[in-house]
Amino acid sequence: MLKTKDILDEKDKRLRLISKEVQFPLTKKDQELIDTMIQYLHDSQINELSEKYDLRPGMGMSAIQLGVAKRYFVVVNELTDPETEDDQKEFETYVLVNPKIISNSMEQIYVTEGEGCLSVNRPVDGIVPRYARVTMEGYDRDGNKIQVRAREELAICFQHELDHLNGILFTDHIDPKNPFKGKDQMRGI
Ligand code: NI
Question: Is 176 helix (H, G, I), strand (E, B) or coil?
């Protein structure tokens, strides 16, 4: 079982690698890693389990965050309200292999409370401009070509994870001298 301490911290240089395209079929190891990532993200959003196993809540994770420089990430998106009882929660899981953005909105948004990352264990002030809507193309874990459309928080999550595959952390998007630059041109969510 994956523990929070197993996730690479921002100081780890491996997070700066450009991850490599994946060939199909996926190896057994990659399949297992994907299952491990899904399990972590799911459990981390279940209050009882996140407390019991001391999991930091997160909705997305890229392979490089576990030291594997391959182009895939997992997103577990809660469909129900976050206040919902543990046993009533519903989730949608996305596995994207070799993903790319094929279209995006002109409109930009940002997370008002600040973006977070399982690899960044400190509060970071500032806004990260993201497209409000994106369409991504990639492959599922079985090698089938897929297209996924996302908006709002889910769209931000996809863009954040795609950045990881290119060695980029959300903190890179923030100008330390002017962390709220451009705020008036975008919508906070
Ligand atoms: Ni992250």
Answer: coil
